[in-house]
């Protein structure tokens, strides 16, 4: 059930017929003057329009200045009698009122003076905005100019034994499960670190590419360390390519090599036990 204020608004909302004119003197001072009634709101508000601007206002801020409501408009139709509807009466303006030419926009009155909007200036502004559509916001670079290179974001990698274990353990298990052994071995057999960083790492690498690079370096270090750059040169290469601290790279390479050595030793032991049985 609506509150008392809403009931009061609904009670006087019907005085403002859609299409009629009214004087508005509410809080929206920019709209003070003569406005057109456009629609009714279900909670008692009235939608007004003035010079193309619409606003929802309270009916208490409006005063009718013209009437276009024909007799019987807004009333419920009479109930049919004996199954026949009553004949329609010709609609004509109420006595003392006048029909409103709805084709004309409502006049905009400010402090008792009619304001004529400068529509030509508005059209010029609109055309200027339309002309800007499709224009480049910046001049094109000169022919042969090298576009700026994207900078990869700085990766945050953990330190500390427990953190490093969590950082690599689950990823290593998933990587081995999703990447067949022959695919991994083919990369290890032809691994060249500078070429790998140039050709196999995307322009903006993430943590997955970083972990994968650490894995292949650790695997190649076990298979044939001579195919890798000197150990002291590897952390600076990875730090520059992945934007990771050199100290973190050294710790991660050490962890990965120890983990792979442990896994290979366990695999060899299981193979020996299986052959003996």
Descriptors for this entry?
SH3 type barrels, alpha+beta, two-stranded antiparallel ribbon, five-stranded antiparallel beta sheet, single chain, 277 residues
Describe the structure.
A hairpin with a 5-residue loop joins strand 2 (33-40) and strand 3 (46-50). It is elongated and about 105 Å long. The chain has eight helices and seven strands; from the N terminus they run H-E-E-E-E-E-E-E-H-H-H-H-H-H-H. A five-stranded antiparallel sheet has the order 4-3-2-1-5, with no helix packed on it. Strands 6-7 form a two-stranded antiparallel sheet. It has 277 residues and is of the alpha+beta class. The N and C termini lie far apart (86 Å). The chain folds into two domains: 1-70 and 97-116, SH3 type barrels (Roll), CATH 2.30.30; 161-276, no CATH class. The model is unreliable at 67-71 and 89-102 (pLDDT under 50). Helices cover 42% and strands 11% of the residues. The chain has helices at 4-13, 119-132, 161-178, 181-189, 193-199, 207-223, 234-242, 246-276; strands spanning 21-24, 33-40, 46-50, 53-57, 62-64, 108-110, 113-115.
SSE order and pairing:
Blueprint (H helix, E strand, L loop, with lengths): L3 H10 L7 E4 L8 E8 L5 E5 L2 E5 L4 E3 L43 E3 L2 E3 L3 H14 L28 H18 L2 H9 L3 H7 L7 H17 L10 H9 L3 H31 L1
Antiparallel strand pairs: 1-2, 1-5, 2-3, 3-4, 6-7
Helix pairs in contact: 3-6, 4-6, 6-8, 7-8
